[in-house]
């Protein structure tokens, strides 16, 4: 019953609740979860950031045991969203020498990511399953 959408509850609110429930351990450790939807976009973006400031990284081993199951459950109800083929549906942002690098990543690549990979944040673009621009990951 918890995951039934309340009257007038937005998809953003639904995703926020989903993330807070499934990423509670990381949130308790100081990781930040944000949901954004920009005007004109058809998708929502989930950003999971490191517990440090926005100009630093964490290691993959610090989060992978929580991120991988989260993505498994996320993709049961939501689909990855390609922004008209322009922006990838999932990626990693990392910071090195005050430069931000964005790397597209797939679920399979995340499963094989070395433990010492530095991650500033992970972004996932999703839409409710069944939307026209979505694709199954």
Could you spell the SSE succession in H and E letters?
HHEEEHEEEHEEE
Structural class, judged by helices and strands?
alpha+beta
Count of alpha and pi helical runs: 4
Task: Give the helix level as a range of percent.
Answer: 25-40%
- The averaged pLDDT comes out at 83
The fraction of residues assigned to DSSP E strands is: 25-35%
Shape category = globular
What gyration radius follows from the Cα positions, in whole Å? 15 Å
Largest sheet properties:
7 strands, antiparallel
How many strands in all? 9
Give an account of the 3D structure:
The chain is of the alpha+beta class and 137 residues long. The chain is 27% helix and 31% strand. It is built from four helices and nine strands. It has helices at residues 11-22, 24-28, 64-77, 107-112, and strands spanning 32-36, 44-49, 58-59, 78-81, 90-96, 99-104, 118-119, 121-128, 134-135. Strands 1, 2, 4, 5, 6, 8 and 9 form a seven-stranded antiparallel beta sheet that branches. A two-stranded antiparallel sheet has the order 3-7. The protein is globular and about 35 Å long. Mean pLDDT is 83; it is low at 133-137.
């Amino acid at each position: 019953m918890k995951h039934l959408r309340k009257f007038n509850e937005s998809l953003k609110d639904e995703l926020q609740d989903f993330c807070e429930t499934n990423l509670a351990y990381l949130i308790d450790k100081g990781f930040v979860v944000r949901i954004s939807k920009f005007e004109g976009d058809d998708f929502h973006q989930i950003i999971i950031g490191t517990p440090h400031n926005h100009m630093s990284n964490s290691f993959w081993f610090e989060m992978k045991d929580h991120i991988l199951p989260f993505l498994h459950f996320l993709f049961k109800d939501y689909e990855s969203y390609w922004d008209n083929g322009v922006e990838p549906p999932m990626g990693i942002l990392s910071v090195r020498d005050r430069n931000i690098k964005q790397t597209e990543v797939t679920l399979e690549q995340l499963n094989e990511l070395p433990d010492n990979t530095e991650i500033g944040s992970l972004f996932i673009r999703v839409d409710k399953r069944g939307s026209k621009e979505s694709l199954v990951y």
